[in-house]
Write a structure and sequence with these properties.
about 0% strand
């Protein structure tokens, strides 16, 4: 069994990114579990794990991870956008709209602005 050290965690994080890109979110989650277990404060690893949970349609774990990221980084536009997508997929439109709008206010990317639907009533 490999020793858990900083180099191992970096390798696991990068491998998890590759697995997620290759559409293996479960494999990514597995690798990230050990990274986060040893470094629970690692926001980048938590954000990547949240994305993997979302890709695996594990919406509640994704929601919890995105919310944890936002507790630490309330100005993270991507985390707001991803949490909004998670709420949207769960049928929670009101919560989704709120986070889409926060994402667009923090970073006016065209994708965020379209999703925010500012022209519609909340």
């Amino acid at each position: 069994m490999a020793e858990n050290n900083p180099e191992t965690h970096v390798i696991d994080f990068r491998a998890a990114e590759q697995l997620l890109a290759a559409r293996d979110p479960q494999g990514a989650v597995k690798l990230l579990d050990s990274v986060i277990g040893d470094h629970p404060e690692n926001t980048a690893a938590r954000l990547l794990r949240a994305r993997a949970f979302f890709a695996a349609a594990q919406l509640r774990p994704a929601e919890l991870e995105f919310e944890l990221v936002l507790e630490r980084e309330p100005d993270n536009a991507f985390a707001h956008f991803a949490l909004a997508r998670t709420f949207e997929r769960s049928g929670r439109t009101k919560q989704a709209t709120r986070h889409f709008r926060l994402a667009a206010a923090l970073d006016p990317k065209p994708e965020y602005l379209r999703a925010a639907r500012f022209d519609e009533r909340p």
